[in-house]
Design goal:
Number of strands: 0
Strand content: under 5%
Distance between the termini: 47 Å
Helix content: 55-70%
Shape: globular
Largest sheet: none
Structural class: mainly alpha
């Protein structure tokens, strides 16, 4: 043992810190009332993220960080061919990855086959920090392949990959919180995707579901005119989820995993 931490351990540590921080905030200052048993939902959503992690680690011999290290060693990609300060390459890489995730998210809404995978995330009829864990393993697998491709083409450094993965998971936990930050929300959303902004994305109204696609930076929704400031109904009132998946049985693990094939 050399005393160093692996990429998985670093990401895991930040995930645990931010999850319990944001969960503690929403437990203390809840915005919307829960209409179903929270404990059962949390167990199911945690089971999903565990399955996702196992699937990616078992099915892919390399993840994005491994490819980034390989790209650095073999001088693959655009950033490896252009002489730029390291800090600028890392910053540009993180911003570009967030931009790519925005467009990936839009494609998963736009293409019917991909939507069948992504709708599992939207089928949660409540909205809290655990909703951020709820993605179909096939979607996570495809997302990793997209990130790997970007790392190879651009030669994104390993440091940028780790920073982005931490930002992606922590911002996803943040913007799924069951809180209302009030005036602070309005200020933060000029730069970041906030809970009130992302909650609109989980509305049952199709025009609202197909809006606010960003995960970390809110600028992409502003630039590409997909930003909806507020829902038609009040924030504490509108329905969350999808009309076709509102039964308690739809949240069983077996049903969630088979949902794309129904």
């Amino acid at each position: 043992m050399d005393g160093s931490f692996s990429e998985l351990e670093i990401r895991g540590l930040f995930f645990i810190i931010f999850f319990f921080l944001f969960a503690g905030i929403e437990f203390t200052f809840p915005f919307r009332q829960f209409i179903h048993q929270r404990g059962r939902r949390w167990i199911q959503n945690f089971a999903i993220v565990f399955i996702d992690t196992v699937v990616v680690r078992v099915t892919l011999p390399f993840v994005a960080i491994d490819i980034a290290l390989m790209a650095q060693e073999k001088h693959w990609g655009l950033f490896q061919l252009i002489s730029m300060p390291k800090w600028f390459v890392i910053l540009a890489s993180v911003i570009f990855l967030d931009f790519a995730i925005y467009w990936q998210h839009r494609l998963f809404h736009r293409i019917p086959l991909l939507w069948k995978l992504h709708r599992m995330h939207h089928s949660d009829i409540m909205f809290d920090v655990s909703t951020a864990l709820r993605f179909h393993p096939i979607e996570i697998f495809l997302s990793m392949l997209i990130k790997i491709s970007l790392v190879i083409v651009l030669g994104i450094p390993a440091a940028a990959v780790i920073i982005f993965e931490i930002l992606l998971s922590s911002s996803s936990l943040f913007n799924h919180m069951n809180v209302n930050l009030g005036k602070l929300d309005s200020l933060l959303r000029k730069i970041l995707v906030t809970p009130n902004m992302h909650r609109v994305h989980h509305s049952v109204v199709p025009q609202e579901t197909d809006s606010n696609f960003g995960f970390c930076l809110s600028i992409w929704d502003q630039l590409f005119q997909t930003k909806v400031e507020r829902p038609i109904a009040e924030q504490h009132d509108f329905l969350i989820g999808l009309y076709e998946f509102r039964d308690v049985t739809d949240n069983k693990i077996s049903r969630l995993l088979s949902q794309p094939f129904l």
